[in-house]
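#struct-pred
JK: can someone run the complex with arginine? inputs below
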Amino acid sequence: MKKIIDYITEETRKAFRAAGYDEKYAKVSISNRPDLCEYQCNGAMAAKKEYGMAPIKIAQDIVAAMQDSAVFEKAEAVMPGFINLTLSREFLACYLGEMAADPEHSVEKAETPQTIVVDYGGANVAKPLHVGHLRAAIIGESIKRMGRRLGHKVIGDVHLGDWGLQMGLIITELQERKPELPYFDPDFTGEYPAEAPFTISELEEIYPTASGKSKTDEAYKAKALQATYELQQGRRGYRALWDHIIRISVADLKKNYGRLDVHFDLWYGESDAQPYIPDMIRKMKEDGYAYEDQGALIVDVKEESDQKEVPPCMILKSDGASLYTTTDLATIVQRVQDYDPDEIIYVVDKRQEMHFIQTFRCAKKTGIAKDEMKLSFLGFGTMNGKDGKPFKTREGGVMRLENLIDDINREMFRKIVENRSVKDTDAEKTAEMVGLSALKYGDLSNQASKDYVFDVDRFTSFEGNTGPYILYTIVRIKSIMEKYRQEGGSADTGKILPASGDSEKNLMLQTARWNDALAGAFADKAPHRICAYIYELSNDFNSFYHDTRILSEENEEQRKSWISLLELVKEVLEDAIGVLGFSAPDRM
Ligand code: ARG
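RT: done, structure tokens with the ligand placed:
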């Protein structure tokens, strides 16, 4: 469905034409003085130069041409030349009626759907999922869902860290502990056991131990480097061990991402890009982009206009080993081959920005990525504790994601039971649903690039700009509907009538902006704008609810109209939280 602002703009253009002015000046925006009007046009000011007239005079001419408009109830010219617009209640009701009848609730699907890969996991195999990966998962999932909602083909890839020194460290530590295992016997030719020689909890303890040892013990580190090298060369026993590590670790990761309602289409890792490296490097050399510098292979990526230094992209170290950048470049090769995407979006900690500047430039320069392909970096800030420092456990350690989720759910459970509206058996499940909204909304409501403070008390509050507040609003609407039905209200709800009061009109205006809010948020890759939209929508609903006795309204037509409006508001809210990545219970 066409956006309401497009109707308004069209009507304004008509008035510019009718009054003899160029319609290119007829730009309309949401009013920044909602106390005075709903929409505004500042075009008369911009037209001053061309027509050599006082803007107020131009504005008056335009406003005169708007007097019979079916879109505007009121159009006013005010000094120095603003045009203040107030929508006709009939027009607005009619727009909402169409929206209510539209299964997409007004959302317009992309005319030319794009293929977009979102790279947003980045978890490292054999290391527990920690809060550092939380933001990538939450923000990336929302970007993926927004894109899909708008009709794009979006592919989510977890891009696991499954290659490199951490693997060699684990192998080395395992060998110290269980040297008798066949994986370490170079002469072993039989079949390796199907069962892994460790559990996930052992694995999670092995890595930090090994990593710690390698920092103080040079010989140990050398062994780990050697094991990494041999694994990468395809040593059979190490490959078999690596398979076990991946299998056990991925099963655990899936469980944890599942609790966050985060789902990837591809469970590829850095290792999956390795086969693309040799050809890629050969071509870079042939084409003269890559050259040797002190034994290493590099590609220059600095540009004239750089404000800060952008170092060359290192493709191979002097010992011939590939790097993080090499893997990311090869992954682009792989993605182009598999999906030929229009865009790849990387949702990664913003501290990695330089790495992506280098990688993107190198990919474009060497032709790995076509000119038309967009490479976007959506860098996010740090999640801090109340002390303003990166979030830690009370003991000062790295917080595991599952413990964080448990903490939120426990607090949510306490608050819900206090509310007593839910039977205890449901309370746990409800707490999980509401807890997820607290966690995700707490993150998504901030502009992604900014750091934010993780505050369980605030995030789980039913009041203020929080996930539970949004869910509470939805649940409130659901319970009004239920009561309406219990009282024998018919399922065929009525036509939406023009607003009867200010709070109703505000609610209608905000509801009508859903398609615009979603499209704008996706264009800017800004889930926080959806949060801002639904926060305002919830506030508008709650003011309307406060002002209006819906179910005891005697006029049946009016009552039914309100029920239809409520149904639509609920659908929009549910649509919006769906793209944010959580859902609402029936009661809470
Ligand atoms: N595994 C990396 C880390 O933990 C993040 C990977 C991000 N994605 C990428 N394509 N580089 O830092």
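RT: quick notes.
Residues 119, 122, 124, 159, 161, 328, 346, 348 surround arginine (CB under 6 Å).
The first helix runs from residue 4 to 18.
JK: thanks, will look after standup
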